[in-house]
Design a protein that fits this description.
Elements (H helix, E strand, L loop, with lengths): L1 H15 L3 H10 L1 H21 L4 E9 L6 H12 L7 H11 L2 H11 L3 E5 L6 E2 L6 E5 L1 H4 L6 E7 L5 E7 L2 E8 L4 E5 L2 E7 L9 E7 L2 H11 E5 L6 E8 L2 H59 L4 H37 L18 H19 L7 H85 L5 E9 L8 H26 L6 H7 L4 E6 L16 H16 L7 E6 L6 H13 L6 E5 L7 H4 L8 H6 L10 E2 L6 E4 L8 H4 L3 H13 L2 E5 L18 E7 L7 H11 L5 E8 L8 H8 L1
Length: 778
């Protein structure tokens, strides 16, 4: 049982094991294939280098300016100096790298450069890129690009007469072919309208074919995220490097430069967002303040107009001065009125008749003149009375004149009194008005101060906002990009692909490996056993040797004095079988196979012949493939009598069916005889044991030709009379799967000392001591 387990383990190991020595030998043997492979691979590599567009590496470097935020900036600088990971600016750089390689930025870049539409001129080997150089431009509604999942592909063939044929696909779905006479042309599809028109560039010669591919924004962004590399050049640096590989240098430069531009614009937008919001706020507030100030100024105007005010302070001073003046005038009028009244009383007093009236009393109007005239006339009367008496007509005439003048003076005084009272009433009314106005002045002043206060607040706020507006405008004008461009996008001088030496090295490696891979694949994909070495790898069962093909066409190839390859191989097997039959009583060797046609009878004849050529060794071969006997046919012997007739007869003796083979004096044969109707039962006969007892006593070796075990079970019944088993395989005929049957036979112990021999190989000479090698390997 332990031997069977070891057999299984070894079988599995051998099946998976690659024999490098054998592979090397096969490679040396087939060196011509390596030469052909090298020539072919180098030629293909040369053509590939010639037709492949050169791809260049484009690089750009930018310096990220960190915001100076006082203590935070100092801490960041210290962290950078002392490499304090928690306070380092590397995290900020990683954030900027993430922003620069973001899907959003890539999508915007692709749209700005129009890279969601790809133009190529179809060539014989490769397609030429037509970035910004296509004679025909395709345009599609941008709203469709957001919903486009599968890309449009247009094959535009322009004929010599400028007519066009457009084949349309979306994804793998063909939408049809359209014949167009001229451009522009609007192609209507279920996914949206696509417009084709000529560009200003018409450098291609007719006819030509364009391949135009339109993809969605998100798909374009995904593709550029894969091909554009963004990263910090070192952990302690604020410099970010951008790189991409492209076979179109202008396009590669535009990609990197546009990414930097969009990054700066985005950073500036973020940086100026507060300032822009402030500007908007200030603008709105200024508009409101202009409106409010206009309303307040109109209110001031209306208030002054309604209250007849120019300057409340000046108005109050003037009113007070006017009131003082009015009071003074009032006193004067009172004095004048008192004086007038005193004069009136004096004049009216009878006792004062023909007396001089007071003069210089400041009485207004004609009264003073009349009094003066009266006094002059009165003085004349007085003077006359000194000379004449009072009854003198002259005196009487003067008296009449004086009385009349007195009446006129009284009338004038009355008039003066009325005028003074009227003037006094007028001044009193004006005084009262001024007094009421002065009384209203505090209220008006308070109200006006409130209006002025609002006006002042609005005015000062307006001036403040104007100042802030200018400061904010200055801030916006002085904003600088966050990324300082150190190196604009540039291409390295040598293309990164195709690299001639690398491609040549790869071609040489492939050329050397290709035949080896073919050999291995051929071995793996070949379902039939090819040679002895493969058989040894596939199983751990001992392999006695191999038998190569013989071109002579004869059934007997092993003869005395013959040293051909096949004869030597049979001798090698003969030598190896002696290590299997280790005891003197072990003489019987049964020969079997998986199926018919594997050369079992040919092997039995020549193997027996090889044994018989040994000195003083008698060999008997017996045909026990009684269902399909071939031994007698190969040796042109009669088939009327043989082992089947012996087993069927109870009286026949063994020596009656053992006959000379005619090939060598030491080689005898027991033919199979007629084909019996019951071969399985016949092989179980005791007569068969009797025959083998006879053969063991009279012969040194007994070689038995048996039926294939893969077809019938007859051979297993012979295990009782055998000492060893040779299991024959045929190169390029026996299936590898048949070895599982052999393994199961060995594992179950159904045949004694089973060894393998492969027949029909192309080997020209022996390869050493086969069985000994197998024994050593075990």
């Amino acid at each position: 049982m332990e031997q069977r387990k070891n057999t299984k383990i070894a079988t599995s190991q051998n099946a998976d094991f690659i024999n490098f020595e054998e592979l090397l030998q096969k490679s040396i043997k087939n060196w011509k294939w390596f030469v052909i492979s090298i020539i072919a691979c180098v030629l293909i590599a040369f053509i590939y280098v010639k037709v492949t567009p050169k791809t260049y590496q484009l690089t750009a470097n930018i310096l990220i300016k960190m915001e100076d935020k006082g203590m935070g900036s100092k801490m960041g600088s210290m962290a950078k100096m002392f490499d304090m990971g928690g306070l380092s600016s590397s995290d900020n750089i990683e954030d900027e790298v993430g922003i620069m390689s973001s899907h959003t930025l890539m999508r915007q870049m692709a749209m700005d450069l129009g890279l969601h539409i790809d133009y190529k001129e179809k060539g014989f080997f490769t397609d030429d890129d037509l970035y910004n150089n296509s004679p025909i431009i395709a345009d599609i509604d941008k709203s469709i690009l957001d919903t486009l999942t599968a890309g449009f592909t247009f094959k535009v063939a322009v004929n010599k007469d400028n007519t066009l044929k457009i084949k349309v696909k979306i994804g793998d779905e063909k939408l049809g072919t359209f014949d167009i006479k001229t451009l522009p042309y609007i192609l209507h599809t279920n996914y949206g309208d696509v417009t084709f028109k000529y560009s200003e560039n018409q450098s291609l010669e007719l006819p030509y074919t364009l391949l135009i591919t339109i993809c969605g924004r998100d798909f374009a962004a995904e593709q550029f995220q894969k091909i554009v590399s963004v990263g910090a050049i070192s952990k302690k640096s604020n410099i970010i490097g951008l790189s991409t590989n492209d076979n179109n240098i202008p396009r590669g430069k535009d990609i990197l430069n546009t990414l930097i531009k969009l990054y700066n614009e985005d950073a500036l937008d973020d940086k100026n967002k507060a300032a822009l919001n402030t500007e908007k706020f200030i603008g709105e507030r200024l508009d409101l303040l202009v409106h409010d100030l206009s309303l307040i100024e109109k209110s001031v105007e209306s208030y002054k107009r309604d209250n007849q005010l120019i300057d409340i302070g000046a108005e109050a001073g003037m009113s007070m001065s006017r009131m003082v003046k009015m009071k003074e005038l009032d006193v004067q009028y009172e004095i004048q009125l008192g004086m007038v009244k005193m004069i009136e009383d004096y004049v009216k007093n009878p006792s004062n008749k023909y007396k001089l009236l007071p003069v210089g009393m400041g009485i207004p109007g004609e009264v003073s003149g009349q009094i003066g005239s009266y006094n002059e006339l009165l003085l004349q009367r007085i003077a006359l009375l000194r000379d004449i008496n009072a009854t003198n007509p002259v005196v009487l005439s003067l008296n009449e004149q004086l009385d009349l003048m007195q009446k006129n003076i009284l009338a004038s005084i009355e008039t003066v009194k009325k005028d003074l009272n009227k003037t006094k009433d007028s001044w009193r009314a004006e005084e009262n008005l001024l007094l009421s106005r002065v009384k209203e002045l505090p209220k008006q002043e308070r109200e006006f101060v409130e209006i002025q206060r609002q006006q002042k607040v609005k005015s000062e706020l307006y001036l403040f906002l104007l100042q802030k507006h200018e400061e904010n405008a200055l801030t916006l004008a002085s904003s600088t990009p966050k990324a300082k461009i150190i190196d604009e996008a540039f291409a390295v001088s040598k293309p990164v692909w195709p690299r001639k030496m690398i491609i040549l090295a790869v071609a040489m490696m492939i050329a050397c490996c290709l035949p080896i891979v073919v050999f291995i694949l051929k071995d793996i994909l070949t379902f039939k056993i090819e040679d002895k070495s493969q058989l040894e790898r596939l199983t751990s069962i001992p392999v006695l040797g191999e038998v190569c093909k013989d071109k002579s066409g004869e059934s007997v190839v092993v003869k005395e004095g013959i040293t051909s390859s096949v004869a030597e191989l049979f001798r090698l097997i003969r030598t190896n079988i002696r290590f299997v039959l280790t005891k003197p009583e072990e003489k019987v060797i049964i020969i079997t196979s998986s199926i018919s046609g594997e050369g079992k009878s040919f092997f039995v004849i020549n193997f027996s012949m090889s044994l018989s050529l040994m000195k003083n060794k008698k060999v008997a071969m017996i045909g026990l493939d009684i269902r399909n006997p071939k031994l007698a046919e190969y040796l042109s012997l009669p088939t009327s009598k043989g082992i089947t007739t012996f087993m069927a007869s109870e009286t026949m003796k063994p020596e009656e069916v053992v006959i000379q083979s005619g090939l060598h004096p030491n080689l005898w044969i027991v033919p199979a005889g007629p084909v019996p109707p019951n071969p399985a039962e016949l092989l179980l006969s005791e007569r068969l044991d009797e025959m083998f007892d006879y053969l063991r006593e009279n012969f040194d070796y007994v070689v038995v030709d048996t039926a294939p075990v893969g077809m019938v079970s007859d051979t297993f019944t012979l295990d009782r009379v055998s000492d060893a088993t040779i299991y024959l395989c045929r190169a390029n005929y026996t299936h590898k799967s048949h070895l599982k049957l052999v393994e199961s036979i060995v594992a179950e112990g159904r045949l004694k000392k089973l060894s393998l021999v492969i027949n029909g190989t192309t080997t020209k000479s022996s390869y050493g001591y086969g069985y000994g090698s197998q024994t050593h390997n075990k």
